[in-house]
Task: structure prediction
Amino acid sequence: MNRTILLASLLLALSACGGKPEAEAPKKAEPAAPEARQKTVFDDQLKAIDKAKGVEQQLQKEKEKHDKDIEAQENGGG
Result:
């Protein structure tokens, strides 16, 4: 008798945890347009990181230009 009650309650609990089938699940609405971003305590750090990335890209371009100039001098002027 105790096993039957235990088994029935276990089956009831497991069936309650089951999700809805796909046919019954409500369809998700289109995501709303993103709202204005709220200011956080990390904004200053994020701005600094973005600025550093921009400087890094600029330095990389200048390095590539200098490398091309040096290579041109070695091949043509050397």
Q: What stands out?
A: The CA atoms of residues 20 and 26 lie 9 Å apart. The helical segments are 2-17, 43-77.
